[in-house]
Write a structure and sequence with these properties.
The chain is mainly β. The protein contains no helices and 34 strands. InterPro entries: Quino_amine_DH_bsu.
């Protein structure tokens, strides 16, 4: 076991003892760690496939490895860390992962198909896997979202449709693979960005926010100014947690998407956003900016809570990575072996931890 402890004591830090960490090193090793007696203890290690992207299911049960170029997908149960499937799943260009609770979806750009994975809730181990394919859809850069009526909202694109992006969505029953509805009557020039909370499946588009509810209703939220159908000026990224959805426009910043009130409100105006994350309860949004500043926003009041420069981290050309867990924001300088813990609501620095892993990525769950 490797012990990763705080180099300097700062303030009392109370992290849930059930908190776990996944560290990915620059040498493509992965380490599973937990928080014990004010130390981060690395319990196990394994390898990941070279350039594969790593995703963790929302319930913290399954780890997904997606290698887009090679078309390789693999799955690991964290209760059996280090044991990938004996043979990877081969699909063309697996690109977009999404998840709701114990349900995970992977959209494959190479053929427009979707892999559906459900972790068994009656046991700590086991999962089922299936594939959704629509005959009328071809290869495209798309996305798929799970709704808790056991349906998947997935982008579709036919051979005769022009443009790189899909323009419509089909709601498909998982068991029968029958199409329940399509959004053909909603005119869009392109769809990009997607997020679901199980009740609403929400897609960014050139012309507004396309939403589908689990009762099979759907519609389009029109963009307010300054959002519009031109490059960089529409919402092409959406993230969410609980009942909160936040969309990002490259030129205009972050917007709160209220699906119940059917409104879009400015949350943070900036063209310098590198990343943003939302707390699990949907209350706060943490923002990372190009000049290495952090901001935290209150999603209810729409107020800026705090804004600071990233503290106590070396500058790096590889950039920084952040993750929210419970009431804390974790920030790491990539390529180095340290990360900072801050209080989420205030961005007050609490403690710095050092590991013997040069980090290329990390997750907290």
């Amino acid at each position: 076991m490797i012990y990763c402890g705080p180099k300097e004591q700062q303030e009392v830090l109370t992290i849930n003892p059930d908190t776990n960490f996944l560290f990915v090193s620059e040498s493509d090793s992965m380490y599973l760690a937990s928080f014990q007696d004010d130390l981060i203890v690395v319990k196990d290690a394994t390898k990941k496939e070279g350039t594969a992207s790593i995703y963790l299911s929302e319930d913290g049960r399954l780890l997904f490895s997606m290698e887009r170029t090679e078309g390789h997908i693999n799955i690991m149960e964290l209760s059996r860390f280090g044991k990938w499937l004996p043979k990877h799943i081969a699909r063309p260009q697996p690109t977009h992962w999404t998840g709701v609770n114990n349900h995970s979806l992977i959209f494959n750009d190479g053929d427009g198909s979707v892999i559906y994975v459900k972790a068994d809730q009656s046991s700590i181990e086991g999962f089922t896997l299936g594939i959704l394919e629509l005959e009328e859809s071809v290869a495209h850069h798309g996305a798929a979202l799970y709704l808790n009526n056991d349906a998947v909202a997935m982008t579709v694109k036919s051979e005769d449709e022009e443009g790189a992006l899909p323009k419509r969505v089909a709601l498909v029953d998982i068991k029968s693979q029958q199409i329940l509805l399509t959004t053909d009557d909603v005119s869009l020039d392109g769809i990009h960005g997607a997020q679901s909370n199980g009740v609403y499946a929400v897609f960014g588009s050139t012309d507004g926010i396309l939403w589908i509810k689990n009762d099979q209703s759907y519609g389009l939220l029109a963009y307010p100014q300054p959002l519009e159908n031109s490059s960089g000026n529409w919402i092409g990224t959406i993230k969410g947690a609980a009942d909160t959805f936040v969309g990002s426009s490259r030129n205009h910043g972050l917007f709160k998407l209220d699906l119940k009130a059917k409104t879009i409100q400015i949350l943070y105006s900036s063209d310098q956003i590198v990343d943003y994350q939302i707390s699990k309860d949907g209350r706060f949004t943490a923002v990372m900016l190009k000049d290495n500043r952090l901001a935290v926003l209150d999603n209810e009041s729409l107020n800026l809570q705090a804004e600071i420069s990233i503290p106590n981290q070396p500058e790096t050309p590889k950039g920084f990575k952040m993750a929210i867990h419970e009431n804390f924001l974790f920030v790491a300088s990539l390529g180095y072996n340290q990360f900072q813990v801050l209080e989420l609501a205030t961005l007050n620095p609490l403690k710095q931890f050092y590991t013997n892993v040069a980090l290329s990525d990390f997750k907290v769950f």
